[in-house]
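Fold this sequence, please.
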Amino acid sequence: MTPILSANALTKAFGGVPVLKGVSLSVGAGEVVALAGENGAGKSTFMKIMTGLVQPDSGTVSFAGEVVHKMDPLLARDLGIGIIPQELAPYPDLTVYENLFVGREIKTSIGSLDRRAMIAEARSMLAVYDLDIDPRTHMRDLSVSLTQLVEIAKATTLGGRVLLLDEPTSSIPEREVERLFAVIRKLKEQGMAMIYTTHRMMEIQELADRVVVLRDGNLVLDVPKSEAPENVIVRAMIGRDLDSMFPEKPIPQHEVGLRVEGLQVERGGPLVSLNVRKGEILGIGGLVGAGRTELLEAIFGFRRSYAGDIVVADQVVRRNNPAEAIRAGVALVPEDRKGAGLVLMQSVLDNGSLPHLRDFSIAGWLKGKKRKNAVRIAADSVSLKYRGLDQQVGTLSGGNQQKVVIAKWLTETASVLLLDEPTRGVDVGARGEIYSIIRSLAAAGMSVLLVSSDMPELIGLSNRVMVMRDGFIAAEIPQEELELLDIQERIFRHASGMDQNSEHGHVA
């Protein structure tokens, strides 16, 4: 079978630094190729070359067996090659139907825009994917996940044959992922050829027919999914066996570092109580919507709570007051690092000093030397890979961005670390580094409260695990039980309410 889209010996360098080194890859009709690799492996550059956004230094791109001598975005669109980038860029002030028909507008016999025809056709295009969206809705009023699906409809209807998806689940909520998967399965049944970049092993197992891995610009693996168990993919991505993803667990001290008593996050809702000892990592498991994120935000004071006490060491921290929580040594690493954890257009220095600007200034003037020294020491403590303190955070890899989110709290003494999905959107190599950072901080005496939807991560890092359901603690699992073979099933049963022994108002 002739591939629909193929690359032969592609090379590309930027500023003399090789990014792709002779990469050859093809995709056929009705096939999903998972393209994996750490950040910086060359995945995004490869995708851009295939759509004409970047020109290769050497090598060729072929479509339906014919060499395309110079691919460009307009030619790619005419051939039916579409790309859904990680950072979506629709026209927010235009309507859905106007976005769908940009550059290919339907016109009347006298040359004016036939808006009625475009709206009708847009309804049909959206209906293919069961999207109940009024085509006259402005794009700015759609959620990220719906915006993404509109972009997929735009790329795959009206003659689309190839779809390139770059980390499509990195910016959408977990509850929307299955709807995206359903659309991808439908496209596959219709014969669409797809290349799908991802860091997530679950997505590879769920969607892929073939697995291709890039490492340092080289293609190091290209096999059917049946020949690519997780350990093979990880070894190909990072160039070594990952004998143990998780470091040895820290030994908790006897002293309690964080005590939460009767915290009511929702008015009239359940009361949550928990203790985290110094040097302990307490995991919080549960399904989406269980109230895990809300609990962390309420402890930090970012989300309003209605009753209860929060005690750090022996200091009572006033609720609903993030500034007081920060002064008490509480740090929050939010789930959405780009939207809530960082200012992407600012430097490493500015981001690293944001939580403690008051400590780095006097009479409104920044203490430049003190600030730089503090941020540099914090960055080094998390092994940040960066060019310098003036580097814009948005240019760092996902893993290094997450390190900045952690490091910014280390410029002053922190004693409690609240982690909400700390490795979401981070490649497997950087994930291991972040695990080591978390373990080191706990070993130094910090109390760590970890929320994670990644079951191996939750079990592998935590000294204990509490399971939340409907805003309350449904169960507590001690460390010795985390070693049991059926522990993942047990956690799920508590989280879903299948275990009738779960009780409201559990206190640890």
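Residues 174-189 form the longest helix (16 residues). The two ends are 61 Å apart (CA to CA).
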